[in-house]
Every structure is written in C-alpha cells, then in structure tokens.
Amino acid sequence: MSETQDNTGADQKYFNGYWDPPVALAVCEQCDWVYVLPNGTETHICPHCFSVPLEKVNESLSQQNKLFYVQPPELLLPYKINLEQIHSRIVSFSQGIPFATPDIKRASSNDRIAQIYLPYWLVDSDIKAEWEIEAGYEYEVLSHRERYHQHQGGWQTEQVTEQRVRWEPRLGRLDRRYHNIPVPALEGQKVINQMLGQYEHSDVVPYKAGLEQKALIRLPDRNPEDAWVEAKPILQAYAAEECRIASGADQQRNFRWTSEYRSQTWTLLLQPLYATYYRDDDNKLVPIYINGQSGQIAGIRRASMKRGQRASLWILGAAIFLFILSITAGTVSFFAPPVLPFAIVCFIAAALIAITALIPVARVWQYNRAQRRGETSIP
Amino acid sequence: MTEMEPKFPPPNYILDASEIDGIEVYKPAPPDQIEHQTLVEFKCPSCGAETAYSISEGGLSCSHCGYFETQEHEVSGRAAPEYEFTLETIGLASQGWDTDRVEMECQSCGVKTSLPIELKTHQCAYCGSNQVIQREDPQEVLRPRFLVPFEIDHEKCQQIAIKWLGGSWMTPRDLKNIKNIERFRGIYLPYWTFDAASDASWKAEVGHAKTKRYYSNGKWKQKVVIEWRWEAGTLNLNYNDQIISGSKRLSKRLLKAVSDWQLSKLTRYEAKFLAGLQAQAYDIPLDSAWEQARDEMRENTRQACIDQASTHRVRNFRMQLDFADEKWRYILLPVHIANYSYRGNSYQVIINGQGGTIAGQRPVDWGKVWLVIAGILSPGLLLCLVGVITVLLGGVGIIIGGLGFVLLVIGIFISVAIGMKAAQMDDI
Known about the structure:
The structure holds 2 protein chains of 2 kinds.
Chain A: E1 5-6, E2 24-27, E3 34-37, E4 55-56, H1 61-64, E5 75-76, H2 83-94, E6 114-149, E7 154-184, H3 189-196, E8 205-206, E9 216-218, H4 224-246, E10 251-279, E11 285-291, E12 297-299, H5 305-333, H6 340-356, H7 358-373
Parallel strand pairs in A: 5-10, 6-9
Antiparallel strand pairs in A: 1-10, 2-3, 2-4, 3-9, 5-8, 6-7, 6-10, 10-11, 11-12
Chain B: E1 13-16, E2 23-28, E3 39-41, E4 51-54, E5 59-62, E6 68-70, E7 83-84, H1 87-95, E8 101-105, E9 112-116, E10 121-123, E11 130-133, E12 146-147, H2 154-165, E13 185-216, E14 219-245, H3 252-257, E15 267-268, E16 278-279, H4 286-308, E17 314-342, E18 345-352, E19 358-360, H5 366-392, H6 397-427
Parallel strand pairs in B: 12-17, 13-16
Antiparallel strand pairs in B: 1-2, 3-11, 4-5, 5-6, 7-17, 8-9, 10-11, 12-15, 13-14, 13-17, 17-18, 18-19
Helix pairs in contact in B: 5-6
C-alpha cells in the first residue's frame, strides 16, 4: 500500500488534490456514472450504458469533492487480457445465439472497446474482541452393511465409512490487525461480481499516473464512511474464519463477539474492465463487459428477429414455389394422369415446408424471451 | 451480536493451543482431568490401616478401627454415555496393550512389582496395601467409565452356593455339607455393550403346502405338494446394550449363565468401588467384541426376517442388513468366583455379584444317575420281554410287546436327556 488515508475523523475532507497531471471529471446523465477522463480526452460515449456521450463537469475537483470521493487511487490491477483474446471471447459469447445480429462481430473492433477501471476499497483495521463459536471437528465413523445369501457362503460384510461433525464450544480473545480486507466501493458491486467473477488481488501494483493509459476511471459512489457499514460484517466473517482456524476446527457456526475497531486505513484499488457493444435490430446499443483480469464475459445475448423473419420468408418462398408447382402439375394431370403423383408430392412438401417456415421466427422469439428472464446488467 | 459474560474466561474453561498469533482459544475442561492418577491407594484417615469397599455397607470401611466412609453412587443407568466407532478408536483399540506386564511401585513401601497388564487392582504382597491401578490406556475412551456395583456380599454367596450345591438330585448327597468351599473373591470383569439400529430387507421362496387330488389305479388319491412363491419384507430392529464379555479367562458358558445384569444400575466409575476387590481389564479388544455382537445381532435379525415369512418353509433366503448408529461402552460388571474340591477334584463356581445368579461345575453321582436311568428303562424292557415270551407261547404278546416298545423308546429319550444334563453339569 503506497498511500493510505486515516479515516477516523467524521469531518475529514478526503480531497488532497494529488492528481498529476490534472484530470477532468465526466458524468453520464443516463446512468449517473462519474468518471475521471484520461488526459487529453475530449468526448466519449458512456462505456457503461452506451446511451449518451459523457458530459464534462466544469466545476473544480475541490468543488466536486463535496459530492464524490475524488482522490487518486493507491493501487491498480493491470489488464491481463489483450484485444486478440477479447475477440475470441466475443466469438464464443456469440456462439449459440440463433440468428445473431451481424453487428455482434464488430463488438471486438478497436473503436468500440472501452477500458474502465472500477474502484474497490481495501481496509485495514485493528480489532480487539472476545469471541465465541461452535467449532465443528470432522471425524469418520464406521458402520457395516451385511449381505446374506443362503447359497453363497452365508454372510458377507462390507464396512461403510460415514463423515460426521462433532460440535464443541470454543471461546477466546482476539487482538489482531487485519490488512487489505476488500470492501465494495460501488453500490452494484455484488452484481458485478456475479457477472464478471471476483478479481484476484495478489498482483496489484502501485498506481502511477499514465498507467491507466486510455482507460476511464470510475469514481467510487461510496466514501469510506459509507463503506464502513459493509466492511464490519466482512471483517467479522474474516475474524470468524480465523477463530475457526485458531481452534483447529474444520467448521464453525454461531459466531458471536464483542468487538472494538481501531485505526482503520483505507486504500483505493482499481480493477480493470473492458466494455463494448453491438447494435440490435432497433439499432440500440447492447453492452458487453469483460473482466480485464480473468477474461470472464457477461452481457445480454439477443437474437435478431429481422434475420429470423428473413429466413422464414425464404422458406415460405420455397413453399409457395412448390405449391404453385403442385397446382400446375395438378392441372396438367387432367391431360396426363401420370403427373398426378408428382403434384401430390409437391403439395405435401409445400405444406410441410410452409409449417417449418415458422421455426426461425419462433426460435428467435423464444430465445429472446428466455434471455430477458435472466437478464442482468451492471447497475 | 449478543452481550457476553463479564468474567473471562468462564469457569471450567482452559487455555487451548491456538493456530494463529493474536487469538487466544479456550475450551471446556475435560471433566475427569484432575482425578486421573495411575495408582490410587486407600488408607484409613483415622488409623492409617488399609480400607476396602464393603459390599454390605456400600462404602469404604476400615476393618481395624471401624471407620466407614459412604460412597456416593452416581447412577446413570442405560443413559450412561456411549461412544461411536470412530476410525481413530477402532485403530487404537485394535492395537490392544503393547506389553504383557507392567511394573508398578507401591506408594506405601516402595516395592516394585511386575503385574499382568489386565489387572486393575492389586494388593501389595509386602505391606498389604490395597491399590487400584488406573494406568494410561491406549486411548482415553478405553478406560472403564461405568460399572455396576456389587450387591451380593461374600456371606450371601456362601448361602447361595450351599443351596445350589444341594439343589440337584444328580449331585452326591453330602455335597451340600461341604466345608472346603473357599471364600468367594469379588472381581469386576470387563464387558463391552453395543447399540445399533438395523435396517433389513429380505427375499425368499416360501413354501405353501397344498393338498392335491390325483387319480391312480382306478382310485382318487390325495397328496401334499409344496408350492414355492417369492416373498419379500423389511424389518427395523433396535439393539440396545448387547453385552459381550471382554475377558478370555473365564468360560463363556459360565459367564453366559450368570449374565442377567440389570444395566439400569450402571454407576459412574470411581476407584473406591474397586478398593480391596479384584478387577480385570479387557483382553478381548473392541473390534473383536463388536464382531461377536454384530454376529449375534445379524443372526437374530435373520431369524426375525424368516419369522416374517408366511410359513416356516423357506428356501433361497437372502437379505441385506444395514447397521446404523453403532455405539459402544466399556463397563465393569461384578462377579464372585470360588473354587472347591470334592473327592480330589477341583470345581469352579461363579455368582452374579448384582443379582446372585449362580453357575458352575458340580460333581455328579453317576451311580445315582445310572440307577434312575435303569429305573426309567426297565418297565419298557420288561414289557418287551413279556411280549416276546407271550408271542412265542401264542398269546396276546403283540399288544404287550408294542406297549413295552413304546415305553422303552420314551424311556430312552428321557434317559438321554438326563445323561446329557449330568454330563453338562460335570463338564463345564
């Protein structure tokens, strides 16, 4: 941790004005995401919702500080996924979409991919506590399964091993400092984690201006005081787990404690994210997000109804052609009866093909309906 | 978060090893951690002489000055805790004792004595002090935790034995007046108790007898035929406190004959119960005893399944039996043992120290037995003889002979039963 801020005082101002070179803030009026723009960036469409261009905030940082935590971060997780890997991820993302919109192929083009750093808090705290748990010790017990067959030598015994847990009370005192406990800095962090997976914090590097290159930095929408409310249960879970380990137990339950927290320090960490989009049938931009560290991809998969309808029309056309052929052959059969079977076959084929013409449209409708049910997007 | 007790740590908690710096861990103190001593001696607090457990008074008494100390009985009964068959216990129990003898030093006179490992009590040959040995067992759970205290004292044993010796017509008449029966020795024997729930499913061909009519040689005849049908069933049985002896040193038949123990009187083990008495540690390990108990349980379950069949004719019987909640307990049970000699032969008697059931060897007056057998067989033989003679003389000998034959067969059956009982009495 290169720099930390002591956050014990409630009235403390966070802003110290350390961005070097100076930066500008921009806000999306559609989704309310606030970004720090890379140096020299003039305009940019919001890489979160891809709805409207970002609007630069003309007020100074110190004025913004009243509303946002605008200090520079201390740590950064570098991008590990390159553009080539993004392309292959998007190809596999689009596979399985029936009648995928052709524009999805363009989602991996350079002009569409935006880099965003998402903020995450890491908190350090001293904890002094008295704790109690029910410690579970796993053990194995032996039981027996017996088989008897009159004509196969009588009894045959098989030993069966069964896992059980013995619960014993344990209590104690705890006096430790906890380091780098991750606490969400965004309201929708839980959804982000579900969609893109957890980030591995082992290879963090200190933040230096310029490291973020062309990336936009999302500002936290929780300052440390807000985040502390969520930090406490996370710290409690860490402490409970450590009490289990200290007791030599395999499991723990009913953790209770009385705790005192002291000397918290907060560190802002940036996590890498790629955002891109494709256009759907209505020319709306549909966002796709990629974890910049693991490459996990998430986004809305939408089938193209236009392509589905086109396919249906082609099939229907073929059916109409066969129908006309069957009518013609039927007429001819008045004069040349051997043509009649051909006319009947053409008629049946036309009917069957006409029915299959419904399949593309129905498939697209059903797929989009199923996708909408499970649709989540980064809030 | 809940308010915690102001005092820390609470009583009965001891510091435990912690795997993490900065975290102290406390665990509940084991209940008998302080009590366990390798050798416990019993001295009278008034005169310093030896004290011993008095069965009739139910406490420690000094035969020298009359001092008496009541022994509290913490009766747990069948609710006494049991242990599961953990892999750790099975492993350690199967190792048994790692030595045959152990050297103990008398705390009174300092003499070292080499004792067989299975002994749990000892009287010093030099100073006569009563000692209870509580050596470390292969595992803590393999120490006896419960026992049934003696209720029958030595005097009562003498009375039971004398009555029993004269209680059969097969024994010599002068046996009940025997004077040389030695003083009964009270001894706690090791026993294992086992619990299990059994879940059995069976399938077998069951035979149903049917009368069938058939025509043969111009006549209608009947015959019984067996029709075999497949039947199946399930059975759940709970076995509670199946007792298996932990000692190889006494006859299984004798022990079985006196095994009507009332485990509702199981009492928490205290070294004082053993003072002045003998006690033996197990020499049949847990796994062997459990195999024996399981054998009994499964045979019992098998029989119960066969009994479920709609008739007693069963073939191609097969079953699956799952044991669950298998538990065990190691206890000490009281018996009195004595020997006596009669006409140069030595005999052993054993009495259940709780209920007074007696079993043992008794000499048989075979002259008396043969006389009775001859008396039983003679009417049949006599009538057979008369029958043969009258047949030869052309009389109604067939009827007399037939009656004699029937009586002879009955007499043979009775004689064999008497002979077997006599042999068994003599042979235990």
